[in-house]
Structures are given as structure tokens and as C-alpha cells.
Amino acid sequence: MIQNNDFQRQWADIGGDVLAAVDRVGKSGWYVLGQEVRGFEEALANFWGVRHATGVANGMDAIEIGLRALGCKPGDRVLTTPLSAFATTLAIVKLGAIPVFVDTDEHGLIDLVRCHDLLRRRRDIGYFVPVHLYGHALDRDSLDWVRHEFGIKILEDCAQSAGARSGGKPTGTVGEIAATSFYPTKNLGAMGDGGAILTNDAQLDAKFHVLRFYGETERYRHEEIGYNSRLDEVQAALLRDACLPRMQRWIHRRKQIANAYTLGIRNREIGLPGAPENSDSSWHLFPVHVAPDRRASFLEHLKASGVGAGIHYPIVIPDQPAMRGVRYELTDDCAFARQICASEVSIPIHPYLTDAEVARVIDAVNSFARVRLAQAG
Known about the structure:
- The chain is of the alpha/beta class.
- Helices cover 42% and strands 14% of the residues.
- The mean pLDDT is 96.
């Protein structure tokens, strides 16, 4: 079976560097918030092109702590997308803030023109959490236009977009803050959970450090109600030594595979949304679209062909059962987002796919229509 992610192949590549990193941490005798975290934070900031990075326990904490640092509080309204991992909205809800959902475009990215029109009519929305979904970069100029015209505070959710660029610059560098995740399936993934908050603002960075460690400003002095949200020394060490040095190679391979799929998939039943204009995608996922009533049979066909696949995401966030009783606002019917939820399928695009496997995926996708014609006959 061709897998969506192949961690065994990854281990064959990075295992030696991981074991050396773990050995170094073990010999140091320091396991929490030590030199490994500081070293990785410096390396990550350098990779991302920002001044500061703060390691935290996971990507959701990165969003919640980042919003707290920006001043977001219960009752504040936060503009965001209905199409993302639930963690994006959960971080907002945990703060007691009110998610305000705006529909996406055909690529699954929040529609910045709709956002602009909404903010022109309403001045009660002070925060914005856009998501660079699938590894695609939102248009930098459009996002900057929204920020400066309305003075809204922006935290960019970059959990899926490490290495992606717009206008030659990394995602996460328009707003005040970027949040990212090191969940194992991400382009920059750990062997466990983790996350980081990135910024060019030294005062915000100092705030992150206080909030991630119980709100402590000095030993046993707690100025705020903070969090226990710390990136482990072991995860920081292996991310810096084993993963970060390979990132450019991994992303280059993802782009090669995406290009092969774009050129090779020729099936009228399968839609290829591709990357948006002006997006230099890091291709965390490769989504294709199929008619909703055909999606189950398409997935079955791929499985029978030895190709793993997934769905990202089957339910828009406002429709999740957990949102019952939660205060939120829908500004439109989220028609694009709902259509994507009903039709999207993610085919394998991890960097350890061989050329032969890529060809097999293409053949499996292209043969789906022939299967249908055979059944009809």
C-alpha cells in the first residue's frame, strides 16, 4: 500500500541523527527548556526569516497563546475560516472569543476579498486568524492590504505551510504572529507533538515565554494565569538536527510530486484545484475533488489499487457537534467550503515516494473513470 505518510522510510533516512540527538540530550541531564529548545528556536527563526521563535507543546497552544499575547479576550471577535483542522477554531473558543467565519475560495483558502468587504461594514472584529491550508500560501499583498486598511491584528496559522512562500517571502510574516505545528505528519514534523510561535516583535516574544510557563516572570513568581506548554528538549533536538536540515530537500520533492500529478492526472471525474496564483506552495497535502456521491467509491478504488488516501476535512467547523452551544457567527453560507468538504480527497505526496509509486498513484486516479464505464457496461 502506498501510504499518505511513510514514517518507516523517514526513520531509515533520519534515524541516525535522531539517535545522536537523543543521546546528547540524555547525557546532558537537562530535559525541559534547556539549550536544545533555545538552539532549535534560533534555528527555526533563521529558517523562517523572523527574529524570534518560541517552542510550545503543540500547534493549538501556539494559536491560543499567540492570541492571548495580542490581547484577545473573552467576547472579542476573531475572523477565521470554516475549513481547517478543528484546532484553529478550538484555540479561539478556549479563549472565550467569538469565531466569525468567512467562506473560502475554490482552493480552500479564506476569501480575502470577502474578508475585506466584511471588515469595511463592521468595526467590531479586532483579530484575524487566516490559515495557509494544504501548504498553500495566501496572497501576501492581499493579506497585507486587509491588515493595513483596517488595523486588524493578525495571527497566521502556518501549521501546514512551513516552507511555503508568497511574493518570495515566507508565510507568517505579514501578521504580528505566526503559529505552527510539529505534529508528525507536518512538513516539519517531530516524533510526537510540538509547536512554535514566531514573531519579529521582541515584546510579544517575551510574553510568549511567560505564558508558556505558568505565567512565571521569575522563579516562583506568577504574574498571569499561564499554561504548561513547553516543547520538549528531545523533540527540539531532533527537529534541529534531523529534520530542519532536510526541509528544503523534502519540500523540493513534494513540489516534484505535485508537478507530476498536475501533468499526469487526466480524468474528467477528478478535479485538480492546484495551487493559487502567487502561491509557492510547500504541498503539505495534494487535494483532488470528486463528485460527492462518487467519493466513497473513489476511495474504495484507490484502496483496491494499493493507494492510501484521506479526507481533509469532511465537515465545516461551524457544523461540528462540539460547536453546539458555542457562540460563533456565520457571515455567509460557506458554499465553497461546504463543497470542498463534500468532494475533497488527499492523495499521497510525502517526500519518500518513489517515481514508480507516483506513477502508480497517477494510474490509479486515471483508471477510476474506466472502472465506472466498465460497471455501466
